[in-house]
Amino acid sequence: MVQQPHGPLRSFGRIKARPIKSRQASLFQTLLPTIALDPSQPIDLLALKPDAAEVWLEIGFGGGEHLAAQATARPDVLALGAEPFLNGVASALRHIEAASLSNVRLHTGDARDLLAALPEASLDRVFILFPDPWPKLRHHKRRLIQPDLVAEVVRVLKPQGRLRFATDWADYANWTLERLTGAPGLTWMAQRADDWRLPPADHAPTRYQAKKLGDIAPVYLEFERTPAA
Ligand SMILES: C[S@@+](CC[C@H](N)C(=O)[O-])C[C@H]1O[C@@H](n2cnc3c(N)ncnc32)[C@H](O)[C@@H]1O
Annotated catalytic residue: which of 110, 113, 132, 168? Predict the structure, then answer.
């Protein structure tokens, strides 16, 4: 049994917004049980895909467009995703089915539960893309980027594993830079402005990104897991 040590971070709002279409609803019965992760027990990544060249995790995959695009581009990678918003999960299941992906596994809940069930130094890459900005000062405590979550990401990343964070909100970019550049075990990889203001070559645009709701063009902050000073 994995202990879930975290408090009630309310980083996500709704679990379900619209009725789920019947085709998607049927995927909850057929496809999801075959690819669902159970974070109540320690997760054995080797058992999930013994020949995986790398293991990646997307936290808050929304509609799953990015997760499916990455899993399609890299069939040799085991791509994990965590998302509590059920309409998003329904959309992701549709993408997974349409592309016949066999290298994706989903946790339909809080990413922090999944992180707690993962072994130390087990992930090559973590993606946190366009997380809810929670722009009001009194809601900043709901932001996903908090010291406990950052420490967990550091714990599960392999040496030289990478974390990619993207946002189109200036205040959230600054908030994240402050917390990640100050985190033991993470080093910001940018050497020139284009490293954070241009999409990385392997970036796949996300649904939320396309809405352009933020106050700046997207920024992409790439960190490497390095030995703590
Ligand atoms: C603004 S949306 C962006 C979704 C997607 N990354 C995109 O760019 O289209 C943020 C997503 O993060 C999810 N989220 C928030 N807190 C989370 C948590 N603790 N664990 C996993 N997902 C979370 C929300 O449910 C929401 O779908």
Answer: 132
Q: Whose CA is closest to 176, among 213, 144, 138?
A: 144
* Known catalytic residue at 132: yes
Measure 60 CA to ligand 1 centroid, in angstroms: 3
Handedness of CA 113, 39, 161, 65 (dihedral sign): negative
Mean pLDDT by 10 residues, the chain (229 residues): 66 75 89 98 97 98 98 98 96 97 98 98 98 93 96 98 98 97 95 97 96 97 91
For ligand 1, mutation pick of 10, 70, 85, 141 (most atoms within 8 Å of CB): 85
Task: Report whether 162 contacts 126 (CB < 8 A).
Answer: yes
- Does residue 54 contact residue 76 with C-beta atoms inside 8 Å? yes
Contact call for residues 97 and 104 (beta carbons, < 8 A) = no
Position 17, amino acid: A
